[in-house]
Amino acid sequence: MRTAARLRALYFLYYGNVGTYLPFFAVYLKGLGFTGQQIGLIQMLPSFPLAPAVAIAWATYADHRATPQEALRRATSWVALAVLLLPFARAPWEVAAVVVLMALGDRAVVPLTDSITIEWCRERTREGAGVSYARVRLFGSLGFIVLTLAVGRLLTLRGGRPADLLVPLV
């Protein structure tokens, strides 16, 4: 697959995940019987205090021990493995632990992907191809819209199931 297609697919899937996670994960947790305070705490964990530290750690790793591409492969692999635990987490502390594990890779995906994409666009522009970062990144917005609507429609068709396992699987 061409580099442009891979980058577009990554943006599409990553932001499609964001679009399904944000509106539906809290409802899933409520279906598990979590309180509003527990849901808020779980959803806060990846952003603060983890996001800045994780992004800097992965960037440092990419700069000193690997390439940005290799760091991105490892970060996305980490997230993929961690997310496999989510359907089995039922207690608030279990879900919180899995969300933290996911964040240890997830919070590096966008900075590393942007770095790779901007550098790739710069190289193509030097070669006269004139590739636009915005046109590649646009697929993230499309993924957000398409997957949010598709998953929302699918959940609606399935009926109002509390703690529907479709949410962590998506």
What overall geometry do the principal axes of the alpha carbons give? globular
User: What structural class results from the helix and strand content?
Assistant: mainly alpha
Number of helices: 7
Major pleated sheet: none
In terms of DSSP E residues, the strand content is under 5%
Average pLDDT reading: 93
Radius of gyration: 17 Å
pLDDT < 50 stretches: none
DSSP, total strands:
0
Summary keywords:
single chain; 170 residues; 7 helices; globular
Summarize the structure.
With 170 residues, this protein is mostly helical. Helix content is 81%, strand content 0%.
How does this structure look, described?
This protein has 7 helices and no strands. It has 170 residues and is an all-alpha fold. Helix 4 (68-83) packs antiparallel against helix 5 (92-126). The two termini are 24 Å apart.
Write the layout of secondary structure elements.
Blueprint: H1 3-31, H2 36-44, H3 46-64, H4 68-83, H5 92-126, H6 133-158, H7 166-169
